[in-house]
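Mods, move this if it's the wrong board.
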Amino acid sequence: MSAALSLTEAAAAIRAGRTTSTALTRACLDRIERLNPRINAFIAWDGEAALAQAAAADTARAAGDKLGPLHGVPLAYKDMFYRAGQESTCGSRIRSGWIAASTAAVLSRLDAAGAVTLGRLGMSEFAVGPLGVNAHYGAVRNPWNSERVSGGSSSGPAAAVAAGLCFGALGSDTGASIRVPAAACGVVGLKPTYGLVSRAGAMPLSHSLDVVGPLARTVADAALLAAVIAGADAADPASLAAPPGLIPAVPPPLPKGLRVAIPTNFFTDDLAPEIADLLAQAEDDLRALGCVTVKLAMPSLADAVSIYGAILGAEAASIHAAWLRERPEDYAPQVRGRLLAGLSVPGADYVTALRARAGLLERLVADVFAYADVILAPVWRQPPPRIAEIEAQSVADAARFVGGVLRATAPANVLGLPALAVPIGMISAGVPTGAQLIGRPWSEPTLLALGHAYQSRKGAPALAEPE
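Not the wrong board. Structure tokens:
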């Protein structure tokens, strides 16, 4: 079935004339019609517009026009990236019906690369929360087990890619929001180095922590998407000029003797035995690929977690302050509770937290990256919970639970590090889980090389077929 192709396979097949953009777009639309009612990944889609784009892509190919790297490939995006003249709800009641005046930089880059747009994907309200529940539009359900959360806040992108509703998607990550849903749904997610990808035209949550990145079925797919969207942008003040050609469109060969850190603390705290077993198997696989594993302590990461809340809380509260005063009832209680907590962060604590980041990164380089190139770590430390369990939690209980989920992922955001989530197997809850490969700033080529070599050895997971 054409929907079972990877993104890179789909792009190559269109370019070679083995299939058409129209055929692939129809295959995705058929699966959306059949499966989206079960998982709620798409918040809106436009089949007529997508097929018109696909037909134009096929005409261009037949005419011998120059083709972009994503020519004719059907993609989708989290409903927080703005497109001029179209609605962007940001998963909220407050933004329902809001029409964007301009188009996000990353969407413009996908358009320029020739991608076909299927529609907008569900998300946690205002990207607040790593679980994918949403009181306004319904939870995005895990395509492998509909009783379980899909992870968030890029819940729709992960579920849609896993179920073959699109060939790739864009998400965002402020503390977990690409890696957590990618791991829970069994797909690949890349949280890039802070500043590598423009956030212009995307809903902000925390300007010091937000990044934009791809979700896809394979590491090669994620590399291709990242290569298209990466690059400096004057419209995003945090955008940085990355080293030339930093993101290769094709993962590079695995360097010989790559050193992989195996944490002896922090990530191992409260780690479910079955997840620990899968990580141990992944460690064995990396050694079989020629990597050298080194057991190391992670002394600075707990400190990074301790300042995460002050940074996120203060910055998110400043963005939402007016709505919290004027429209508090339009937030879901759990989301409102987390945002209100940010209003109480003292200014001195916020400034202290920002100033501490550079020192923590220096410590991590001295303690870990002086001895290893990559850290192998879990994404989820416990199985993803049932949706009903999360929806029934009090505001206080929800905040504590979210803190536990974020523990393994937030340090990469605080320190601006790239992290690649890769599936490592299924767990007893009937859903996948994943590992994250964490590197120094600007080490995306190394992470992609390692992730691709690992996935080539293990094989990409099949499409989820929700019941």
